[in-house]
């Protein structure tokens, strides 16, 4: 517990002082806010009822950016942290001092999860989610965040080096972050991505903002948690096999 | 009492045999120096003793648990965005020791007025001192110092020598590697000379100099080394 606390302290301080990383947590809600304000259709000469139809059919910016944040931002952040600590040999000093690898991962992930709560709340405020909707959105966001933390940690441990980590993280982030956006316009992509947690996060957020979603909430949450469990298992397997190499 | 013991240790990296039957032991509360040029196998010995590598053969014993060891290695491993104090607080939390010890350690290495400066804003010498403060924070039983004063100005190096001697006086065993003869002469109670993975001489610096009819001055210990190895080829 002492080790987890120490790693949590280190990571929280480091995240708050690391502008590019911190920016990941601010950028997406900020973009959602700006795009929500700018994307109000206001074309001269088009009747108001037509504008309302256009507005109804436009993808919701909060939904879109929340999915991109959970799917894309975090998958690149976690491997970045792990590989930086590995390459700078900070991890070696921590493990020599008695920090178990699992305590390190829990500490680092804990900070990312914690800071993501604030980002999720920011999305809720921009999206105007209150009452039960707020809790449903937060639960969906944090499930997505948990999935990305697992996947990011797996990539971080698997690659060991920053360059290699980015090579693995970027394609995964593009598929998981942008896939649901494309799925809004393409049914085939939507069917393919149906079992992915970011697609389900997108569906839950769409349900809250626009309603009329076919997938029931319980099913979306079920798929997201199944994703977290599978990614967790994948992480454990990679961790057991690769970790000793990662910190020497 | 023996603190560290190595017996017939061998280690290869691929075709390259780095250690060829290294045998030595260190006593509790002494400053033990491992002398040798770059590439002679000094860092490999530290890595084996701190369990970062395993030896191919031979015996190895360190009479301290990993959390009772202080480290100052080639890579400082500092958290570059964190301040000097925050860097130590991380380890203070790992070891479960009070905050006062971090501040005391920083003051001891002359960084008492740089508590809030980020590690990446420090000069090379200050980073070295911060690394030393981290190594002594938990009052370790054994300290491993890998070329602790390389690239430091003489004044900073002298401060670090003083601190190492204080550690020895408080009962810590100090194991240091160096290719700096001055460091060995002014600091070490005993030294071993390592060349191409083989120990070519060991003992008290005075004894070694006497053995080769040299006086205990820096140039003479250096001369003994050159005489034994034939210089660097």
Structure characterization notes:
The complex is a heterodimer of chains A (248) and B (233). Chain A has one domain. Chain A is built from eleven helices and no strands. Chain A has helices at 2-17, 19-38, 48-57, 61-87, 90-96, 101-127, 131-159, 162-183, 187-193, 197-209, 217-246. Chain A is elongated. The mean pLDDT of chain A is 84. With 233 residues, chain B is of the alpha/beta class. Chain B has helices spanning 42-49, 84-95, 99-108, 124-136, 154-169, 181-187, 205-211, 218-229; strands spanning 2-13, 16-27, 31-35, 57-62, 69-72, 142-146, 173-178, 190-195, 198-203. In chain B, the strands form two sheets. A six-stranded mixed β-sheet of chain B has the order 5-6-7-3-8-9, with helices on both faces. Chain B has a three-stranded antiparallel β-sheet with strand order 2-1-4, covered by helices on one side. In chain B, strand 6, helix 5 and strand 7 form a beta-alpha-beta unit. In chain B, helix 2 (84-95) crosses helix 3. The longest helix of chain B has 16 residues, at 154-169. The chains are: A mainly alpha (248), B alpha/beta (233). The interface between A and B is medium-sized, with 23 and 27 residues.
Write the layout of secondary structure elements.
The complex is a heterodimer of chains A (248) and B (233).
Chain A: H1 2-17, H2 19-38, H3 48-57, H4 61-87, H5 90-96, H6 101-127, H7 131-159, H8 162-183, H9 187-193, H10 197-209, H11 217-246
Helix pairs in contact in A: 1-6, 2-4, 2-6, 4-6, 4-7, 4-8, 4-10, 6-7, 7-8, 7-10, 7-11, 8-9, 8-10, 10-11
Chain B: E1 2-13, E2 16-27, E3 31-35, H1 42-49, E4 57-62, E5 69-72, H2 84-95, H3 99-108, H4 124-136, E6 142-146, H5 154-169, E7 173-178, H6 181-187, E8 190-195, E9 198-203, H7 205-211, H8 218-229
Parallel strand pairs in B: 3-7, 3-8, 5-6, 6-7
Antiparallel strand pairs in B: 1-2, 1-4, 8-9
Helix pairs in contact in B: 2-3, 3-4
